Amino acid sequence: MRTLVRGGWVVGFAGHTHTLIPDGVVVYENDRVLHVGRRFEGAVDAEIDARGRLVAPGFIDTHVHSGHRASHRLITDTGRPDFYGQPFLEITVPREGTRVGGDPRYARPTDADADAGNRLLATFTVAEMLRNGITTFMEFGSQLRVQEALLGEVERLGIRAYLGAGYDSGRWVGDERGRLKRALNEAAGQKEFESALAFIERVDGGAGGRVRGLLAPREVETCSLDLLRATRKAADELGMPIVTHAAYNVIEFYDTLREHRMTPVELMESVGLLGRDLTVGHGNLVAENALLNYSGGRDLELMGRYGVTVSHCPVNIARRARYLDSWPKYRAAGINLALGSDTYPRDLIMQMRVASYVGKVVSHNLFAASAADVFEAATLGGARAVGRDDLGRLAPGAKADIVIIDLETRDSLRFGPVRDPIKALVECGIGDDVVTVIVDGAVRMRDRVVPGVDLAAIRGQAQQAGEAVWSRVQEWDPLGRTAEQMSPWSFPLVTDC
Ligand SMILES: [Zn+2]
Description:
The protein is an alpha/beta fold. The protein has 16 helices and 20 strands. It has helices spanning 87-92, 114-131, 144-157, 186-203, 225-238, 250-260, 264-270, 299-305, 314-319, 327-333, 348-363, 371-385, 421-428, 455-471, 473-476, 483-486, and strands at 2-14, 17-21, 25-29, 32-37, 46-57, 59-64, 134-139, 160-163, 166-167, 170-174, 180-184, 211-213, 216-217, 242-246, 278-282, 309-312, 336-339, 402-406, 434-439, 442-445. Helix 11 (348-363) packs across helix 12 (371-385). The protein binds zinc ion.
């Protein structure tokens, strides 16, 4: 089956860089791109009309946690200063002996509706990504049963996924006074690691090759050194990428320094974890970041030397008053920059815009984090993270993972006149502008509709699930707060008028 997509602008590829082709065409046969150029003379079986639109490689989200992210809604414009702006500590660290309630990701497998809840989260996650033109994603360490639910939706809805159950040697909990405390359990971590291995060996190559495995030691400071070493060994044996949160958290940085006399990046080097197959979640709180007041840092040089990928999630960290310092320094060090959403919205166009603007502000350089740079990170950067030269580009032989983006939009003037489609997209676009998504040569969203998904119904179910999370905060919050105390309304709530 041979299909021709008639642009519009087409983002082509010339060896090491994307190119721009006005009024171009992309031809794909089955799951692979056959031709990209101004015209195609051969016969085709079908044609997709994308005239007046942008035809681009699908986006790669390198930092996804399955879910509707209702808990994150509690930490907008608020939070615990004693956690140094680290969001997950505020909303997923329960009082010792309790569990975060209402969120099926933390349910026991025996809990009623845990499976249905995880299925909803998986459907929400995959549908949101497809709707926003994300064709490949990397899951960042959710539990095994969350991965199982995701696997089903990845198979059904047709996205490309790197899945792998997370593991660690213990978690953070809150004590009776709300202080952070470590709950260590090395044996449980080892067991989790083994079941993660069994999962990735089972699913790798599934769904016609759309599913691949990855290793996900959740956070560098919550894993024992043995577990990190075992991760490296398994990654080498299996040829799978590794993801972990590191250099992402002030507490993690100082705790690691105090315990090991090394920064988190130095610690990763010491156990052999650094490499081209490692994607570091955030990697912004490195020794060189002035926020940490550390002297003599060499984290950027180390990550660059090993060709590590930093999964930069600019919206999430900006929301917490933090930043990557800076885009040009990371690039100059040789670090591969990729983009991730981590929280919400899973809209890489918005992520590109924030990465670009903050990149300019932090580096005091209007040339920094250009539209081309951030678009490259959302496509080729993600492909490098998973070691693929057939993703993130439209070139003969590459996977037919294609998005069609409306640069006019049906009912707004947001784009205005478009001269350069990439600059226009980064400055004026949103995920909703994506109209058609093709993954592996199959149309998975056509004219903004994802077959098999009722977006309104999912939104309704997610709202209900969110209300359940918000109503149960007091059951597990180490400070015993309600959702209203944890996250005051933006304006006074008035119900008696
Ligand atoms: Zn994360």
